[in-house]
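hey so i finally got around to running the thing on that chain from the lab meeting. sorry it took forever, my laptop kept dying and i had to restart like 3 times. anyway pasting the input first so we r on the same page abt which one it is
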Amino acid sequence: MENILGREIPESIIGYKEVKPYKGAFASLGEIQKKSVKIKAMTPGHSKIITSIKEVLRKCDIHDGMTISFHHHLRNGDYVLNMVLEQIANMGIKDITVAVSSIFPIHAPLVKYIRNGVVTGIYTNYMSGPVAEAISKGELKNPIIMHTHGGRARAIESGDLFIDIAFIASPTCDTYGNINGVEGKSACGTLGYAIPDAMYAQKVVAITDHLVSYPASPIEISQEYVDYIVQVESIGDPKGIVSGTTKITKDPVGLKIAKMTAQVIEISGLLKEGFSFQTGAGGTSLAVAYYVKELMKKKGIKGSFAAGGITGYIVEMFEEGLFDCLFDVQCFDLKAIQSYRDHPKHQLMSASMYGNPHNKGAVVNNLDVMILGATEIDTDFNVNVTTGSNGMIMGGSGGHSDTAAGSKLSIVVTQLIKGRLPIVVDKVTTVTTPGETVDVLVTERGIAINPKRQDLIEKLKNTNLPVMTIEQLKEIAESMTGVPKKITLDDQIVAVVEYRDGTIIDVVRKVKG
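ok and heres what got predicted. didnt touch it at all, straight out
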């Protein structure tokens, strides 16, 4: 069958639940049923502290076929996933499904466990490195399920993703299970992605390298959700938190894109008192923030909030009084961690509060402007940030689809050509974010506005900005690169890409060779 975007979706997929094709960004909104959770109550005097990961696995009755979860706030510095899976493998357990909010190169040992049958299923929002490569080549028994950040929270809360045991990397944990991410040698800041796991998993295990006396303060994840506590030597390396570049680009092309983007935001009419904003951690995205900052200061504008994974640059804007508060689901660098620890108005938000479409209102719904990236964008404004041009998995939605759907103005910023390939194509390799939620594409060669945004087209048509159709941008790119050859992929489905509402927006097929 085809979904509403014309993407071919099999009527059934081995290892996947009922297939529900994507019908539109807001087609599934309405009354939603959340699942109930069965817990074992604690009596006074009961100790939650367990001496080892092996012992806690026994306490949780680990067995073949279970689903275990992890969060990614330590990013490429995380040790917890690897140490838990090593112990599971040593115990001879097989057929485990790993639900981890993101996978990084440090999680390369997962490849071994995929090949020997310890791990047969994966849920994740983003993946890069050796695990992504192995899955792209068809080495995992079942297709991985790729969520958005808000979609993962939705799946957990609805019961679509049932978690037997959640392992929470806990920079600080007290002796009764109260957790925070701002103290200890492995401090990583907010723990927003771990909150749905803690609330809805059947068993919750805090893994910590900083066990403190009761009570910990502040508390991000409460004792009422935690079954067991295990102290280890180290849960990770906080230096691995830093995500690629978190500095403003000095590249003239990137700066040109950023300056034009800020002009689009200004002309849109959204840059006014109470302005709300989110951008990524890449160099061009942060340059957009720089130009927006200069405009806000020039106009004397104070914004209501900035949101997302927070970087040090956004913290600087907050400290200069340009935003009243920050909503933070994860800290991208050490300056953000310090700010979250010290400023009451630098606030935690859970993944559900951030982007879950099936709750009583997500933060993304109140965003004025969101700055997005793209691996590819097609002439229908569908965006791919899941696979490379060769079909290999190299990312995932994360908050991309959530913020595009919620914000009043979603802007994709990218160079028109990357790696000698055009970014604008007839049909993206994989749809991550549907074009109906993408408003503007800004490249160094020109700006394309989604035809559904006639209001923006009208506002920009008499400016000196190089506004053109997306088809014209595609022609410009191809005049420089030629028309790229279409890649051929195997029939085997290696990943199911779910939209934030749980419907299938696309599938990823095995790369050949």
